[in-house]
Protein 1
Amino acid sequence: MSEILLEARGLALGYGGEPVLRGVDWTVRPGEAWFLLGSNGCGKTTLVRGVLGLLPPLAGSLHLDTTQVTRDQIGFVPQRSRTHTNLPTTVREFVGLGAVGLSASARGERDLADALERSGLEGLDDRDLSALSGGQRQRALVARALVRRPRLMILDEPTEGLDVSSEEVFLETLEALRRDAGLTLVFVTHALHIAARCASHVALFAGGSVRTGPRDELLTAGLLQEAFGVPPERLQALRL
């Protein structure tokens, strides 16, 4: 068995002392691709905030093995980039923001160039961010996270709003990163078709609890209906 990178045991997380999630048991090992699935408001983002250290446990434990991945080696990709349209920002400048907070020795042109290349943005570094397509902007978010040379990458619904072509290129970029760079992924999404394609493991959220395990054991008709409250035959059409 591989060493454990991240582990939750009896974890409860919430706000103002009120739990959103209870009794979470979750084990993440290096190189796995975890997809967090469930309806809106079910606690997916709450768990992500816990992993990022932004939300302390109300009960139980959440342990990150810092001998394998430090807090500086966690990359985060939000759903959208937010830049002021009146403040021109090049792709290079935007991606370089990912190094904020790192020591000067950890930042460098080589890391930035490598991040642009790995995310498929090589040659676009001087382009204004606002001139990029939606898919390219999402890859710029990945590049911004890659500047930190992460071991663990957390992505919060990064394909939401992308067209089919942009989504395909984005997923191919992620699959290459996992294959070539050995990244461990935690990917929040509603899209079952993406999880079915890319996940090695799945966490299903429903009713304040989380069921975790290998993809093929979790993506079953009964469990999906429990998590989404929608008949399984309708889930794909709704792109949940």
Protein 2
Amino acid sequence: MTSGKSAARVYIETVVVATIVALFVRTFLFQAFKIHTGSMERNLLVGDHLLVNRFVLAPAPSRAERLLLPARHARRGDIVVFKFPEQPERDFVKRVVAIAGETVEVRAKRLYINGRPIDEPFVHFLEPPGAPRTADEQTAADVRERYGPVTVPPGHLFVMGDNRDNSEDSRYWGFLPERNVKGRAMLIYWSFAPDGERPGGRARWWLGDTRWERILRPAR
């Protein structure tokens, strides 16, 4: 009887410890995030499930923490998950294209940082830059065509979606406060085909709808 109670106690303690560790990892180190929109296509697709590193971009207020912990500020090119400034209860995912002190400009859909054109092989356009326009098209106020120049203020970032013609990002709602960043996207740990990709409108099947080729693909 005693040994039975000991075994039960060990089992309960193991479950409790595992739960605490899982909660710690979930709260402080990593977070799961699902892609719901096409703003990051064709790198991140609707139905991709991301593992987000909450630790690497965490603030480190003391010198000791900065020396001991591998935390850092967001860099240009990082894909970050953040609280949408206008609705903090919503999480967005975008790419950092400029950091504090840098000047951002869009000319004919091409991104310029500090006056220099930026090579962005990951960017996708619904309509390519330089596409012919009809006479009645008004593009002067279209931030997809031209934007800025603006300088990113201290403590802020400028973020954009990789799907440049279909992304609600800093061009529309302004600079992203660094404090809103929740973490950097690391990899795709699972990916499901959305409803529109399933032929014949068949019901979802867990294995059949999995995009196996995307699993464990780095988010970059």
Protein 3
Amino acid sequence: MNKMPSPRRFGVSFFLAALAACVAAFHVRAQEFTFQLDRAQTKIEFTLHDVLHTVHGTFALESGTIRFDPANGKISGAILVDAASGESGNGTRDRRMHREILESAKFPEIVFIPGQMIGTVASKGASRVEVVGQLRLHGQDHDVTLPIDITAEGTQLRIMTHFIIPYVQWGVKNPSTFILRVSDKIEIDVHATGQVQSAEGPR
């Protein structure tokens, strides 16, 4: 008949097992990861309100690679958006947007450069973090903090964010005319999917 372990031996064994689990968890969390956005599964939408109706449009992702370390929240990389891809469904309005407002021939990219992540990304399921960084628009860098909802499924991450750009305050021309008055702020919604890999290879 098997003997029950003594309370002392059981306590020591439990402590060692718990310590081993904590060490293993630390090593997993201390790894640096790379998140590669999928252009085909990334949607960047903008909304601009005016007194008569709301203008909706889209931009196309050019590329996006993010490196982050869950142990300290450090994050780097860049998300590049093709400024010339912006369209709202109205050719005349879009040509003016690129020629006079965005000047996309002169400033062909809109770039987000992350610097710090606040919060923890769960290995499975939903998380919410904030990412502090700089958004380069019309050739100028501006400090921003983006709220980001993340859903993890295996090696795949889905991210969503909604934020507002005070573009007139940032020095971009207001497209309003004496007939049409639009907001001096523009709303941005991003829905993206990508794959995550550790620095040592696939997760």
